[in-house]
Amino acid sequence: MRLVSTHSLQSGEKIGKPITNDQGQILVQEGVNLTTRMINRLKILNITFIYIEDEESEGIEPTSTLHDQTKTEAIQDIKQAFGSLGEESSLSKSFILDRLGRNFKKTVKNILMDVRESDETISLLSDTIGHDRYTFYHSLNVAIYSIAMARELKFSEEEQLTVGVGALLHDIGKTEISSKILQKADKLTPEEMTEVKKHPEIGFDILRKCFELSTVSAHCAFQHHERIDGNGYPRGIKGNDIHPYAKIIAIADVFGAVTSNRVYSKAILPHEGMELMFAGAGTQFDLKMIQAFRKTVAIYPVGLTVILNDGRKALVVQQHKLNSERPVVRIIEENNEKVSRPYYVDLNKQLTVTIVDTETTLSAKEKKLVNRFYF
Ligand SMILES: [Fe+2]
Questions:
Q1: Which residue has the higher pLDDT, 317 or 17?
Q2: 195 and 247 co-located in one domain
Q3: Is residue 287 part of a domain?
Q4: Cα(233) to centroid of ligand 1, in Å?
Q5: Residue 364 lies in a domain
Q6: What's the domain range around 27?
Q7: Ligand 1 center from residue 224 Cα (angstroms)
Q8: pLDDT tens digit string along 203-221?
Q9: Does one domain contain both 275 and 328?
Q10: How many domains does the chain have?
Q11: CA of 173 to the centre of ligand 1 (A)
């Protein structure tokens, strides 16, 4: 399978992985040949990248970090938590969450086990889902990234669980922010911005009253928009005053946001997202944590078309755990010509060969629209 961006799809190309909605229902089955109408529909569904099947990419299979069941249960839990908190007072919200607390711990334990068992670095691109409830999927992705980072930083299992629960619920305060503001595609007004920036404190207020959850989880919600140089919100606290778990979640949150479609911005690819994270290393984010994070994420996901420093074109076939910048690739073009017999190069062994570009990316026009603001 090959990963392509929706804007470069051609009619007649064959879908490699089924595309589902947020109820898990299949919208487009694998093996279906795309029509122009379907391609337009995918764009409307806000899907940026999909997997297609073709001869050159035969046998390349992207893997998923989570088992389907873990994913479905986690999404249900998050939906229940966010959905049940509608118009309740913050005290009754804490009651509801207390009831859900046990589920969350179980779900996070399952995510933790899946992350531990997974042989590959994390790639969440293989889940092609069209959804309008960005927050649910984002919360799950932030939990996966945070657990993987905590693991890489040698946190104990108990600590990984607490980070995971904090990550899953970090944006729970958004349940009290108007969905009109959260779903707004245009730039927010200063008043709307002030409103959005209340969500960490609201989340803290809800979570700190949950007996079932650790107080640290509440602090994760409170501090996930703080930045180590003091330029974050709501309090503008700095460096070591920010809890390490909140620093982890901050990184997972921003990376998860920029690599997903949001109402106001298109997704960018993991290597582009990582560049953005490193630009903020040492000022916004903790450098050591970003370095640990880089080791856990598939910088070049399986199925991506890459250009090597000697001009050869290749498809990413397999990740190397802890060195995701140097995957195994299948060469498909050299000297600007298709190779008759594709062959493999392990970039982790041939150290003079590097990836210099990717073919799959947003169009220049779409890139201009990438909004780097997230909340
Ligand atoms: Fe947030």
A1: 317
A2: yes
A3: yes
A4: 10
A5: no
A6: 1-60
A7: 7
A8: 999 888 888 889 999 999 9
A9: no
A10: 3
A11: 8
